[in-house]
Structures are given as C-alpha cells and as structure tokens.
Amino acid sequence: MTVSLKDVAERAGVSIKTVSNVVNNYRHVTPAMRARVQLAIDELGYRPNLTARHLRKGRTGIIALAVPELGNPYFAELAGSVIDVAAEHEYTVLLDHTGGRREQEVLVSQGFRARVIDGLILSPIELETEDLLGRDQDAPLVLLGEREYDLPYDHIAIDNVAAARTAVRHLLDLGRSTIAFLGARTDRVNEPSHLRLRGWRAELKAAGLPAPDSLIAPTGGWDHANGADAMNQLLDSGVTPDAVFAYNDLIAIGAMRVLSERGLRVPEDVAVVGFDDITEGRYGVVTLTTISPDKQTIARLAVRSVVNRLLGTGDPVGNGSRELRADFRLVERESTLGRRRDGH
C-alpha cells in the first residue's frame, strides 16, 4: 500500500503543506510540529517519491562520477564516499569508467549522458584544456585531481607537491638519504605523478641532497605489477636506495614484494612510503606508511559543488570557478617505523 502526504497529514492532524515542509526540511517548522509529523511518518512508513520530486524540478536525480580506474582501490573508496554524500542530498550516483583515455574523457565531459544526469564529477588523466573549451552543456561539471584547467569549472584537489614533501621529509627524518621515486611518467607534465615528483625533488634539494635521474623509476601504469617492474628495474641498474617514495600504494606494495624476494628487508634496509591510504596497505605482512588524502572531504566538496550550482547557490555555471582544497595527512606504519616489540 502506497502512503501519501495526505495520509500522513490526516494521521498527524495537520495540513498537507505542513507535512511537505517537514519532508523537505523547511527550516521554519517548529520542533514540536516536526516531531509530530515525523511520528506519523514513522508509524505509516511513508517514503518520499524522490523521482517525482526531481522530475518536478526538471531533473533526473542522478549525478555521474567518471574515474579512470574502477579497479583501483583509491577510486573505489572515493566512489563509495561520493555515493554516501550524494544520498544525503537525495541523489543517485551513476559510475562511469574512462580508462584514463582522452577520447572517453572527452565523450563523458561533453555530455553524452546529458539526458540522464544532472551533473558530472570527473577525474581526468588525459583531458586537455581545449577539450573543454567548446563544452555547452548546462549540467554542472566538477573536476577532481591535480590537472590544472584555466576554465570556469570547480576543481577539487589536495596539494600533491606539499604531500610529497611531507612523505620525503618523514624519510629524511628517519636518517634515509638515498630516496628513490617510483611511478614517474615521461609523457605528461601536470598530472599528479609529476607534481609528486616535483615535491620529491624540492624536499631533497631543501635537505642539500642530490635528486639524480638514476633514482627515478618510471612506470607505464600504476598497479602492483608496475611497482614490481620499477623496483626490479632500479635494482638491476645497480642502484640500491635506502628508501622509496611511491606514486601510490599499489606501486609501493609491488615494490615491497620485490624487495622481499631479493633479500632486502622493509624497513631495515629500505623504508617505503606510498600514497592514497588504501585498505590493502593496512593489512599486509608489513603495513604501509602512506599519505592519506581526505577522501570524505573530496567527496563532500564535489557533491556539494554540483548540488549548489544546481540550486543556484554556487557560482553560476560558466561564470567563474572555485579551487577547493582537501587536506591530507601522513600515516606512519611498519614500512618506515618497523614492528614494535609488543607486536603493535
């Protein structure tokens, strides 16, 4: 049996308008009246028809989240946070996988799902500024990550350079001096790997240490296998660092596997720091020290940005952008500190 606003109004002994004000969280309803209506809602099991509500506003109630890799734990965890936050605003999230390919990112950003979604949260890898210049979609677009676009779209990121410097400073404070960087890319200049590489260089320079190319191991991707290949490549070149800063946790975990196979202990011989704070890094034989981006804040800022623009409470689409920063922190674990004697 479907319960209507009228049913709730009759049970509570109030007008339908009052029930509507409570359901829509109208601020000027008195606490006593809100409690009275809520009791009737709970007793009858009333559930608002969100689809009808969105359609009355000319919307679908759907926000799209497009990420490069759904299989990457960082993006999976971020997607979970976006879904939770969107639900608080009564929106459903449509997940899209771009594979980090420019043509797919262009397709998504240009609104090929324009009739399906109200807004788009996009984490691009290959997308260029010119790809967005001709965008004529009304649906708000929010960009995630460190790619810099001088365009009127909200952009949410952490400070990757500062985060990388924090990771390297931690290793330096532990007395490490030959710190390798795993995960550089040679074909991009503004993506996160280069910003993290920039932070690595800057912190070594500030410590008066060299940052030679021999300590940089590029990768063709960002998963466990890429980390293992990069670590093998570095060791085979005759370089044995006393520390490794990896572009992400997956690369770090792959590198630690190779170090173990080749008789090097973590962290006694080689300390390792990752980036992303994925769940896997917390439960390995050696737990992983990592930079932990505030994924919940990233998700909250992204969803609020879309919703605010839809409501007209943010900058109008196309008339200005906002650079929104989320925080990060260093999480110290066994891969740099070792296992305590009490086993914790």
Number of alpha- plus pi-helical segments: 13
Please mark out the parts with pLDDT under 50 across 5 or more consecutive residues, or reply none.
315-319
The gross shape turns out to be elongated
Helix and strand pattern? HHHHEHEHEHEEHEHEHEHEEHEEH
Lateral strand order in the biggest sheet: 2-1-3-4-5-11
Going by helix content, strand content and strand pairing, the class is alpha/beta
* Major sheet characteristics: 6 strands, parallel
Radius of gyration over alpha carbons?
A: 24 Å
Strand content: 15-25%
Total beta strands: 12
Distance between the termini: 55 Å
Q: What do the pLDDT scores average to?
A: 87
Helix coverage percent of residues?
40-55%
Describe the structure.
The model is unreliable at 315-319 (pLDDT under 50). With 344 residues, this protein is of the alpha/beta class. The strands form two sheets. A six-stranded parallel sheet has the order 2-1-3-4-5-11, with helices on both faces. Strands 7-6-8-9-10-12 form a six-stranded mixed sheet, with helices on both faces. Helix 1 (5-12) crosses helix 2 (16-23), helix 1 (5-12) crosses helix 3 and helix 10 (224-236) packs across helix 11 (249-261). It has helices at 5-12, 16-23, 31-44, 50-56, 73-88, 102-109, 129-133, 160-173, 192-206, 224-236, 249-261, 295-311, 334-337; strands at residues 62-67, 92-97, 119-122, 141-144, 154-157, 179-184, 216-218, 243-246, 271-275, 289-293, 323-325, 328-331. Strand 6 (179-184), helix 9 (192-206) and strand 7 (216-218) form a beta-alpha-beta unit.
